[in-house]
Design goal:
The protein is of the alpha/beta class. It contains 18 helices and 22 strands. The chain folds into three domains: about 240 residues, 3-Layer(aba) Sandwich (Rossmann fold), CATH 3.40.50.300; about 170 residues, Rossmann fold (3-Layer(aba) Sandwich), CATH 3.40.50; about 80 residues, no CATH class.
Length: about 500
Amino acid sequence: MSVLIELKNIKKHFSGIKALDGVHLTVKSGEIVALIGENGAGKSTIVKILTGIYQPDNGEIFVKGRKIIIDSARKAWNLGITAIHQETVLFDELNIMENIFMGRVFKNRLGFLDKKKMFSITNELLKEVHLDDVEPKTPLKTLSLAQRHLITIARSLSHNADVVILDEPTAALSLGETRGLYKIIRKLKDNGKGILFISHKFEELFELCDRYYVFRDGKYISDGNMDEVTEKELIKMLVGREIGQIFPKENVEIGAKVLEVKNYSNNIEFKNINFNLRKGEILGFYGLVGAGRSELFKSLMGLSEGLKSSGEIFLNEKKIKFPDAKAAIDNGIAYLPEDRQHCGTILEMSIKNNITLPSLNRVAKRGLISKEKELAITREYGNKLQIKADNWQMPVEELSGGNQQKVVIAKWLAVKPGIMILDEPTKGIDVASKAAVHKFISSLVLQGLSVILISSELPEVMGLSDRIIVMYKGEIKAEISREDFNAEKIMTAAADVGSDLHD
């Protein structure tokens, strides 16, 4: 196997912080290399250096044996390096074909756009990423988050790059879509591509990757073959210590109903939804992509524009309906959305301003914001959630994905709600940060809160929940108590296999 990319002694500083401190890394043709590390370990900085966004302060980059300076994204693209990021970077107002060929169009002999050729290529790419039923001229904004992610993959495949960087590529995909992506990745490997694979999911790393590199706090820790290391050893390398209890479930006495939903439908995304939530309870909602979990709770929070719902909502036994999110928040319900970048944060604003934004009534008096109160709230929740940042004035867009998620969680905890709805709260967060978030979620019920946990990670929802409600295509297919938790039973209901689980 020939060496496609080699990094030697790469260093990068930001405001006095060592983002990378003399790291090295090699990717060869026909192999999948795992880049593993906590949020803040330097993974994102490596990706940005390889794609020309950042320039290293020191060190050397070799592409196919030649020493290279990658000083722009266009240079990286021309060198055959492409990246598929955790968050999709596409144009909502354009169609699929236009997104795939943005910046790299085909023209005919007369100099006009060769739309026929681009349409044909787009069709073939959609088949490769298992979107056979989607038309190339479909507006991107009509697609789901998972489908958009697959379009990003199709765009990268159209480039025929030598090095493909995959940054949490399965974060928004269902099990079926994930398996389809695995086939694509293996096909790329068989075709001699070098793949740098970034993921917090150990099952993915062990299933796909040939070698690994572990970074911690911007430093190289170790590398080796995946078949010669255990999960326990990797975790110890990642965090510098062993993690004992990943899912610290607190024993809390479950109280009276605080929320009850009866016959709730909008007939498009979900129908005939019935459930209740009790004080001190963590109620899990599990389902595959397209199950309708997020759509259900957006509707309950008054966030579904243009879709009328029917049914009844009772809060502390009082019938209520939330015309908008403010009404829900004013009644003590906070909702942490799945899509943190578009719905959870204002990326350009500081950590401090994001965390205190919904709590301005607590930090302001007579229209004037108290900087001391604002900073105190930020410190309290920022430290509890272990947000890694140079200072609280840093723009959220400069944080790693996991730390952005922590800002969103901190923001809603600062409201001091009675009910917390957490939609994929640990999406894109490393193993150590997950443990901290899980511990914090579990501690919420000790304070008398009730939690609805929406998660696509079965170990997470089983580890933390008192009950699990399983949804499939907008309907509840099973409700399972903790003493009856069984992974096979839950997955069977999530896939709607067998009618004996529908009771």
